[in-house]
Amino acid sequence: MNPGSDFQTSPDAGLFVHTTLKAWEIQVNRMNAFFESMSDDDLMREVAPGRNSGIYLLGHLTAVNDAIMPLLGLGQKLYPHLEKIFISSPDKSGLEFPTAKELRRCWNEVNEGLLEHFVRLEPAEWLAKHAAVSADDFAKEPHRNRLNVVISRTTHMHYHLGQLILLRV
Amino acid sequence: MNPGSDFQTSPDAGLFVHTTLKAWEIQVNRMNAFFESMSDDDLMREVAPGRNSGIYLLGHLTAVNDAIMPLLGLGQKLYPHLEKIFISSPDKSGLEFPTAKELRRCWNEVNEGLLEHFVRLEPAEWLAKHAAVSADDFAKEPHRNRLNVVISRTTHMHYHLGQLILLRV
Fold first, then answer.
1. pLDDT digits (tens, 9 = 90+) for B72-83
2. Which of A8, A9, A10, A15 to mutate to test the interface with B (most CBs of B within 10 A)?
3. Which residues of A are less than 8 Å from B168 in CB distance?
4. Of A15, A17, A123, the CB nearest to B142
5. Do residues A40 and A156 lie in contact, with contact meaning Cβ atoms separated by under 8 Å?
6. Dihedral of CA B11/B17/B23/B26: which sign?
7. How many interface pairs between A and B have CB atoms less than 8 angstroms apart?
8. Cα separations (Å) of A111 from A4, A117, B25, B84?
9. pLDDT tens digits for A60-80?
């Protein structure tokens, strides 16, 4: 299925994209409000006994969102060094973490950069395949497109917000 | 913005809908696999000390998904009595819960019924407003459509799965 160019001018195709991007944007704002409500000390605590710390989840979410850039073919990661610490390694890896202040800055820059790119894509471009799916698989599963990445990373933020909220006493 | 009928025959409009519904379906399957991996006794535990129990979250997710039916104008709730116990009231309300076995059955029936309805809707119908938004607000915020409800309930499941996963020892 080849995304046609005929609906690039259709407001309805744009509305499908807008609906998804709005869900992304609202969720990023919700995460921002949460992180702003937490002190750096709050983030050092674990969400439950023996589980991930707030700061690890902040780093993890930043690294995962940063990886959206190359996945959608929009550019390079801003902070590639976060992957080893916060994706490939678990919380208690012994690796040195950036400070909460530094991670908050990375988090904001990653999401601001993404939104700038997102709003520039045309509807048909959203239906194109992303970098982690082969052409053969994409032909069989056309839902594995760029927009799907935005939906899955929106849900990923919710998944960890459900845990982070447990830091609230 | 009035969803046009001109793209009801366009495979691309259908692909936008398919992408979102696929994310819903994958998440329901993931939740099912999680609940099946948990014994009824497992579900009686709290996800973290003093927090919601697994059985409360199962009831809560069932009641919230059940409410999608009237919200999208697709029909009545299957289990309206769950709202008072699992949405209006917190976990330790003292209200009697259905058994885990009963809630598992409700959960499956609610989601099976929803998917049956979802796949029948045309793309343009997904862009129509849902029942909880006024016509005035919808005119200003056309992203508050039926498809948005599916996205937000998909993320709602992720939010609580992030907590439920803490039941795993």
1. 999 999 999 999
2. A15
3. none
4. A15
5. no
6. negative
7. 128
8. 29, 10, 27, 38
9. 999 999 999 999 999 999 999
Query: What whole-number distance in Å separates Cα of residue B166 and Cα of residue A166?
Result: 11
Which residues of chain A lie closer than 8 angstroms to B18, CB-CB? 142-143
The chain A residue lying nearest B5, using CA atoms, is A12
3-state secondary structure of B97: coil
**Which letter does DSSP use for residue B81 in this model?**
T
Beta bridge partners of A53: A46
Q: Which of B10, B124, B151 sits opposite A151 (nearest CB)?
A: B151
Q: What is the DSSP string of B52-64?
A: -BHHHHHHHHHHH
Q: What is the ipTM of this complex?
A: 0.91
User: pLDDT per residue over A38-66, tens digit each?
Assistant: 999 999 999 999 999 999 999 999 999 99
User: Concatenated DSSP letters for B115-133?
Assistant: HHHHTTS-HHHHTSB-TTS
